[in-house]
Specification:
With 299 residues, this protein is of the alpha/beta class. The chain contains ten helices and seven strands. It has one domain. The strands form two sheets. The chain has a four-stranded parallel β-sheet with strand order 2-1-4-5, sandwiched between helices.
Length: 299
C-alpha cells in the first residue's frame, strides 16, 4: 500500500507542526467513538475538536438573520457543492445564500482565535468538495474519511510507530475526549433536514416556511419551487442523499439509513456525558467572524 503525495505531505506536517483536527460530526458513520479521538492523537495530532460548537453558533446567527429580515428568503450555505451550483447555474439566487460561513470555516477561525499562534488546522470529513472550500478559506489541510483510513492502514501495514512523545494512558480521560467540545443536538447537523430542525424559530418562522431537502435527483426542482414560492423563507438543502452521510468518499458501504442511524445513536450516547455540557461556552466566541462574504467562494 502507498500514500498519495498529498497524504505524505500531511503526515510529514503532523510530525513537525502543531495541528488541531477539525472532525466533521458525520464521523460515526466510519469511526467509533471515543476510539477515534485516541487514534487521531496517535497520529501526531495535538488537539481534536468537533464542528458541533460552530454549528450551534451558526444556528444562532441564522435565527437572528431570519428574525431581523422577515420578508427575505435565504438558502443555507453549508454545502459547497450547492453554493457552487447556485453560482454556476442559478446566479439569480446568489443573493439568497445566507451570509454565514460553514461549520468547517467557523471552527477553523475559532481555533485560530482561541489557540496560541502556530497551530495548523486539519479538516477531516466525508466530502471532496469540502477540500476545495478549505483551500478557498485558508484552512491548512483537509482530507476525507477514506484518506484518513488510508493513513491508518498504511501506518499499520508498515509498522509506523505512534507519536513518540505521546504516552498512551487509557485511564486518562482527556486522551479520549474532544478539546472544546459542545454537547448539543447539532451533532446531527450533517443529516438531511436537520439544520432547519435544530433551529429555534418559534415566533420567527413557521414549519411551512422551511423547506428541507437532500439528494441530487430533484435539486433543480427544489430551486424552482423556492424561487416560485415566496412563502419559503429558508431552504435547507444538501447535495447528497441523506445529507453529508451520503457522500461517496465515506468508507462505509452500508445503506444510507444505517449511516443516518449511527449519527443519531452517537447523539444519544453523548447525552450521558455530563462533563461535556460545561465546555464550549458561547462567550468563547465573542468577536468571531462567522460571515462568508469576506472570503466567499467566487462566482
Amino acid at each position: 500500500m502507498w500514500l498519495t503525495p498529498e497524504l505524505e505531505n500531511i503526515c510529514k506536517a503532523l510530525d513537525t507542526e502543531k495541528v488541531v483536527a477539525l472532525l466533521a460530526p458525520s464521523f460515526p458513520v466510519d469511526f467509533k467513538f471515543p476510539e477515534i479521538i485516541l487514534q487521531l492523537r496517535q497520529l501526531w495530532i495535538d488537539k481534536v475538536v468537533e464542528l458541533t460548537y460552530a454549528a450551534k453558533l451558526i444556528n444562532m446567527e441564522y435565527e437572528k438573520i431570519l428574525k431581523e429580515n422577515p420578508d427575505k428568503q435565504y438558502i443555507c450555505a453549508n454545502c459547497p457543492t450547492i453554493v457552487t451550483m447556485i453560482q454556476a447555474k442559478y446566479p439569480e439566487l446568489k443573493d439568497k445564500l445566507i451570509n454565514v460561513a460553514s461549520p468547517m470555516v467557523v471552527m477553523h477561525r475559532y481555533i485560530k482565535k482561541e489557540y496560541e499562534p502556530g497551530y495548523k488546522t486539519l479538516f477531516i470529513g466525508p466530502c471532496v468538495a469540502k477540500k476545495m472550500e478549505a483551500k478557498l478559506y485558508g484552512i491548512d489541510y483537509a482530507i476525507t474519511f477514506q484518506e484518513l483510513q488510508a493513513i491508518f492502514d498504511y501506518n499499520k501495514e508498515n509498522n509506523i510507530p505512534h507519536k513518540q512523545h505521546f504516552e498512551i494512558d487509557v485511564t486518562e480521560a482527556g486522551d479520549w475526549d474532544f478539546d472544546k467540545v459542545y454537547n448539543d443536538y447539532t451533532k446531527i447537523y450533517p443529516l438531511g433536514g436537520w439544520v432547519a430542525e435544530t433551529m429555534h424559530l418559534k415566533g420567527i418562522a413557521t414549519k411551512d416556511q422551511l423547506l428541507a431537502v437532500d439528494g441530487p435527483a430533484n435539486v433543480d426542482e427544489w430551486f424552482h419551487k423556492f424561487k416560485e414560492n415566496s412563502n419559503i423563507r429558508f431552504l435547507d438543502i444538501l447535495m447528497c442523499n441523506g445529507g453529508c452521510v451520503g457522500w461517496p468518499w465515506i468508507v462505509s458501504k452500508d445503506a444510507i439509513e444505517a449511516r443516518v442511524q449511527r449519527v443519531k445513536d452517537y447523539k444519544e450516547y453523548c447525552k450521558k456525558d455530563k462533563i461535556w455540557a460545561k465546555l464550549g461556552k458561547f462567550e468563547y466566541s465573542e468577536g468571531l467572524d462567522i460571515t462568508r462574504t469576506s472570503e466567499a467562494i467566487p462566482a
